User: What shape does this take?
Amino acid sequence: MLTCIKMEEITEKIAIPEGISCKYESRIFICKNNSAETSRRINLPSISIEIKDNEIIFNSKKSTKNERKVINTQIKHIENMFSGLSKKFFYKLEACNVHFPMSVKIEGGKLAISNFLGEKVPRYAKILPDVDVQIKGPVITVESANKEAAGQTAANIEKATVIRKRDKRIFQDGIYITQKPGDKK
Assistant: This one.
């Protein structure tokens, strides 16, 4: 049994908000605001991308369902870039220690967690580039214009304090995400 794949030309447009300038060169899409800049690699060989008259135009001559999905995904990524340039993505984490007082500090591009559950060797969490991490007591804030970088840094910090081979009901020490972008608190 043969199935017919329906191919048609599609064109999708996104309006560029005021105050943001964009350019697309050698498969890298760069957006700039007064103070911030984000970039994303977009490698879509069968889809053409143009910037004209404050609009981003995605065009595909013979598109299938999968190409339509890819275009819509890239549109959402670009919209996240725009919202990150206007208002940074913010994560809030809290350090909870019941058994041993842990200390948290920034060393270069890593977050060092010392004395976690009485361990002699500190644990480290990678901080991605263009991400601001601040520590104020037990509260750690992660802020960036890039949504993926901010989320991955927050996840790295949370994952660095995962407890293995112990009862999680008793050992509730760790660093946990308490607020994500879009949460109303």
